[in-house]
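Sequence in, structure out.
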Amino acid sequence: MSRRDVPPVPPPPGGVLWSLAGDVRMLLTLPAALTLQVAHPAVGAGVDEHSVFRTDPWGRGERSLRSLQLWVYGGERAAEEGRRLRELHKTIQGTDATGRRYHALTPAYYAWVHATGYPVYAHAQQYIGRPFTDAQHRALYAEWLRVGRILGLHDRDMPQTIEEFWPYYRKVLADEIGTNAVVEELLATDRPVPAPDRGPLPLRLLLRALWPVLFPPLARFRRFVTIGFMPPDAREAIGLEWSDAQERTLRRLGRAVRLLVPLLPDRLRYLPLARRARAEFRCSAARGAGSR
């Protein structure tokens, strides 16, 4: 069997990414990663022209979150999800704001979407978790490469070490990244977003009634965490301002989250797919220990 025929292997149970990706704290970091992705003109154009993020933001968010969880906790379903995503992106093409033709699966563009996860995770961890050791940084990056293979990227399209990653990342920031219509829309606090349409009917009706009151502070909070959990060099490349006062507020938020979330029961601390995978892993480990 050739290497091409071998299915990609998800990140290992019990690894660094395994402990991060399903923790509810990571929900705070996803807007930063998404905004950094679409700050690339080709990715931004693809989202602008082909995504339903304006008409179905909650459905799109739910599907994206489930997909991300499958990459890490899906086991054999991880590779299947990667194939589904590639199939979905085959028809996404057009011309970006620079006049350049793009296709969603062009390795350089598809690799950037994948690459943004690592620096955002690493930056956010300084606030909402314990800063990574050098060994954890290297383990996280190696596990993130596994995610890239699940998405269908080849090793030649991804920096293979942290030492290779940072020059690549800084070059993309310098040469490609900037603001655009999608970035501005994701950061806006004055553009309407429909009320959530998921969950039990009574809850949906209540949210719909309260949405005019709830949405403005939620929009401001979304903008705050989007910019705050974005690495400073990425903020600078996009042209986003961040004050010392905002930094102090973010650190206070991080301390509260860092203290409170570990106290939550698993059913509240971990997202459903992660919770089930973690429980199955514990049971499997217990059976293995019992058979020795």
